[in-house]
Amino acid sequence: MTDLIRVAICDGSPIIRSGMKGMLSADSNLEVVFEGTCQAEIKKNLDRFEADIILIDYKETGESLFNCLSQLNELLPGVKVIILYDCSNKRSVNNCLHKSVITEAIKHGVKGFQCKHKFSADDILHTIRSVHQGDIDLPSCVVNKLLGNIQPKESRPAANLSAREQQVLDLVAKGKTNNDIAENLYISTRTVKFHVSSILSKLKVKNRTEAALWLL
Prior knowledge:
216 residues; 10 helices; 45% helix; alpha/beta; 2 domains; single chain
């Protein structure tokens, strides 16, 4: 039997909250345990619910994102945060997640991001399940901002990667799939998987995204 995933929704828009709750409630393995308009409501009502995942709107934190995340980490240890943001308005500074914001958010424990004006029900359900299982889940628009134009640094601290592993890591950081890497390096996908596994072990990271972040 699949464990029930308890989700809290924090968003200033009643339409977004209602739509999100409807999507999540359709899944028997998810339960929406709280709805709030801002992070202050989450803190005020801690004794009313227990959550595994908090979906929190970036612009509705009511304070700096990192201060908000630090307080949530302290008040709700073990709860995993997914940031909802609006990438539809390119001119809105408050809603725009820049590369530095994404990187810092991940350092503060954020496990996933979703653009709330673009994702489907399947997208948000996949992100919630992945994050609940301990993975970091990022949509393509966040990955492009985070990993775009990354160039490996010569002064990178040694991680005992072989020359081939470094080549594989560089391609992983560019968002290439195992098949892409195999074609690029003229090796089998099985060999690519072996190298990726070795890279994750040597860098002491859990997944490809964290490995790519090592290059930042």
